[in-house]
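Subgroup meeting minutes
Present: P.N., E.W., G.H.
Scribe: E.W.

1. P.N. recapped why we're keeping a running log of single-chain structure predictions: easier to compare across weeks, and new members can see raw inputs and outputs side by side.
2. G.H. added today's entry (131 aa).
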Amino acid sequence: MKRKPVNPWSWSLNVGYNQAEILEGLNRQLICSGQTSVDAEGNPQHPENMRSQITLSLDNLESVLNAADMGLANITRLNIYTTDVDEAMKHFDVLGARFGRADAAPPMTLLGVTRLAIPELMFEIEATAAD
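Output recorded in log:
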């Protein structure tokens, strides 16, 4: 897969994402459900700790990607949902560190929501990936 960033403005690069990407030569596409801060049995973890919820959500996303023989560098789109945008933004360095190591800056959207499916959860990350 070949990726070409499209950034008519550079401001989004300062916070770790491209405005768009042109993808060429795709073989497979993976549509991931939203990943949250739950254990292997689906039990919510880290109530009231945004940083830990973001970290576990990313761990879970990477587990799904790895099961499909993909990684963070394969992500072509992110949708992030949070019950507290300001608190999530304080911990976006967690995402930056993970995606930075993968040399990836996929287009993303961050949305504030009233609540997630499980009330204790504050953060959910949904991804599309391709190779």
